[in-house]
Amino acid sequence: MGESNWAGNHQYAAETVVTPHTRDEVRAAVAAASSVKALGSRHCFNDIADAPGGVLLDLSELESPVEIDAGAATVTVGGSARYGDFAQQLHDAGFALANLASLPHITVAGSVATGTHGSGRRRQGLAAAVSALELVTAGGEVRTFSRAADPDVFPGLVVSLGALGVVTRLTLDVVPAFDVRQDVFEGLPWEAAYEHLDEIEDAGYSVSLFTNWVNDVVDLAWVKSRVGAFTERAGLFGALPAGAPRHPAHAAGVPAGNVTPQLGVPGPWHQRLPHFALEFTPSVGDELQTEYFVPYRDAAAAIEAVRGIGDRLAPVLLVSEIRTVAGDDLWLSPAYGGDRVALHFTWQPRQPEVETLLPLIEERLAPFGARPHWGKLFCGGELDTVYPRLADFRSLAGTLDPGGVFRSPFIRRNVFGETGV
Q: In this structure, how many other beta carbons lie within 10 angstroms of the beta carbon of residue 132?
């Protein structure tokens, strides 16, 4: 077929790609297929969205207007909407999303389906904002679910891995619009990061630490603060303010041309909460990604465990990001049941070498019950032990998709435990 994901490390094995323009066209395509998956921005690094021998639905042309309900404080968008596509419209109406991912280029449906999260010790992941969704299930039936009307199953429907159907509409909770400033600090001593993690994470609305695991200090600390809630500071527990904009992979020599404005210059939430500007290629571009989530209480010990193998990781790494996400009740969310620290790895595009390192990282993080990010590279294994509602999700998938129409090889391996897939 010749189609691949964003990173180019996975070639889709589906037989054809269909680009529907309307919900009825989505229904017809699903009803006619024996195997089907929806494509968003293709920003997953594994085969979660593949349908070997079947149909991929490219939702990029799906007609679905943005609807802002000021009274209910919600916005409803289509399954193809990227965060960057409607953020300005939402801001102009006086509203904001409480959280955003580092890339505004990704779709809402794909982000929430994989548990993509954004950053902030008091900020829940992106999926927690979903209050209702419209789903085309196997056979082409349209079903709607909401947090209010379906409290028993709704927590299992949002982070769905695309295994329950094709999401054509989502309703998100919004908050009043706000402005943000970004301040970057360099050279945070590791000892200070361990000892003062709570204070560092509470220093801003969203805080990220960037490292290559071998330097004697944390390379960068990004503090994103709501304007009006920022305290001027000469440093951050030994780290000093950067004198110029910095790319997360600054230590690897990557220039800062595609990052959102820094140096304390205030701007709208949607132009500061993401790390990267919508009009540019995000992150480094030619890269692979991995991410694991550990309980917040184990942050220092988990970070130290990874630092112990830093010399093995650094030659293949572009940068790692350490960030936090508040707990939620969504069954397959990486933050289900409590606050988490996320350890993110942006790799050079050297997949065989990355794959030799993943078991080593997972062994180091196993004592902390690390959960892998569903859309990125990991080894897998006994995921029921770290995602305690996985059995409930299997039951829900069996109800909504008894024939397995939406079961990619990834779903069959990692949710249903099939071998040799």
A: 21
Q: How large is the average pLDDT for residues 56-83?
A: 94
pTM of the full structure:
0.96
Secondary structure (DSSP) of 111-154: HHHTT----EEEEE-GGGGEEEEEEE-TTS-EEEEETTT-TTTH
Are 139 and 35 within one domain? no
In a domain, 236, yes or no: yes
- At 163-212, the pLDDT tens digits run 999 999 999 999 999 999 999 999 999 999 999 999 999 999 999 999 99
Residue 154: which CATH number? 3.30.465.10
Contacts 24+ apart (CB under 8 A), 383-392: 383/414, 383/415, 387/331, 387/332, 387/336, 388/336, 388/337, 389/155, 389/156, 389/331, 389/332, 389/336, 390/331, 390/332, 390/415, 392/156, 392/331
Which residue segment(s) compose the domain that 125 sits in? 62-177
Same domain, 249 and 356: yes
395 within a domain of the structure (yes/no): no
- The DSSP secondary-structure symbol of 54 reads S
pLDDT of residue 1: 61
